Amino acid sequence: MGKRKDWWPTTKDGQLAMAQNWTQALANNGELWEIKVEDANEFTACTKRAAEAKKLLDDKHTCTPVIEERFRELMEKMGEKARYIKRRYFHIPPLQREDFISLDLKIPDREPTPTRTPTAQATVKAFLEGRHELGIEIFYVHGDPTDLANKSFRVYYRVAGIGEEPPADPEELAKSFTMTHKKKVIPFSYLDSGKTCYLAVQIENGDKKGPWGPMVSAVIP
């Protein structure tokens, strides 16, 4: 198993391969692992639809902007469901050592590690990267960047079109992702071009979150 800081693969092909492996594992062991049938079925159905959309996307005769957007949405939903299943079912028994290996997950360290709540604040500076892409870079605005409580950055964002009400505060930013490095490129749909992306950051240490950094905005190219 390759080393990675986040258990979910970074590439779409890797994510789809892992999800398809999970669907087989859930079919074989879902009842033993006490996974609700509706959760397993929803994840399996979403994975199947994502794989079908990927085939259409890879075929130059069927690849369209609509298929591209559908594939992106299905992959996002599949990832969210995978994270839910891992959080809901795989953090507790009855998974055994070999089960974690079959799911391409790290074997959990059962020794509790004391954690502290971050006190620093961070924000992002956006820069143009490519068509339908925004690059972001993390900056500290308050606190000690070397503090070991600052494990990662949770970036929240929301896209608003012309005439739409912008978010009043960071609590209204619906989507999010985690960063451990200070730079990242965010891909958007071609339909988002010209819209405004609002972003804000919280520093994380496990399930403990620091104060919100200031909200910033940038127009999607």
Task: Give the second-level CATH assignment, the architecture of the largest domain.
Answer: Sandwich
Radius of gyration: 19 Å
Structural class: alpha+beta
Terminal Cα span:
37 Å
CATH class of the largest domain: Mainly Beta
What's the CATH topology label of the largest domain?
Immunoglobulin-like
**Fraction of helical residues:** 25-40%
**Biggest β-sheet strands, sense, barrel:** 5 strands, antiparallel
Quick tags:
2 domains, alpha+beta, 4 helices, Immunoglobulin-like, 221 residues, disordered N terminus
Secondary structure layout:
Blueprint: H1 12-29, H2 37-58, H3 65-89, H4 97-102, E1 121-130, E2 133-142, E3 152-160, E4 175-179, E5 183-187, E6 196-205, E7 208-209, E8 216-219
Antiparallel strand pairs: 1-2, 2-5, 3-4, 3-6, 6-7, 6-8
Helix pairs in contact: 1-2, 1-3, 2-3
Tell me what you see in this structure.
This protein is an alpha+beta fold. It has 2 domains: 12-102, no CATH class; 121-219, Immunoglobulins (Immunoglobulin-like). It has 4 helices and 8 strands; from the N terminus they run H-H-H-H-E-E-E-E-E-E-E-E. The strands form 2 sheets. Strands 3, 4, 6, 7 and 8 form a 5-stranded antiparallel sheet that branches. Strands 1-2-5 form a 3-stranded antiparallel sheet, with no helix packed on it. A hairpin with a 2-residue loop joins strand 1 and strand 2. Helix 1 (12-29) packs antiparallel against helix 2 and helix 2 (37-58) runs antiparallel to helix 3 (65-89). It is globular and about 50 Å long.
